[in-house]
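We keep the chain:
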Amino acid sequence: MLEVTFFRDEHGRHAGVQALGHADFAEHGADIVCAAVSAILQAARLGLEHYAAGEIVAMQEPGRLRVVLNEGCRDRESLAALLTAAELSVTQVARRFPEHVSVAHERIVPKAETRRPDSGN
């Protein structure tokens, strides 16, 4: 299953996207479901890299993509539009192929909140 998670921050702003796994709809090279989601997310990543120029962290390897916006650029309408379009598109694919693609939404916790009070960090 291809699991796609869209992130929002504590203010409800788009903060990024992550995709893990493979759709397993068909054999490698013939998997149109995986290709559709990959194309959507690659287009979003390229747009984010273009419009956020150095204000994103992106990592990609086979079966994994993660793009996170730096906090300072999350108010930009162009970036929110790119992630909204990707979210709407991937959600449509997931509705058509629910056994192959799942979509989740997750809140990104600010770094200061991740520290345990007794950790000394």
User: Anything to note?
Assistant: The CA atoms of residues 1 and 99 lie 7 Å apart. Helices lie at 32-52, 77-96.
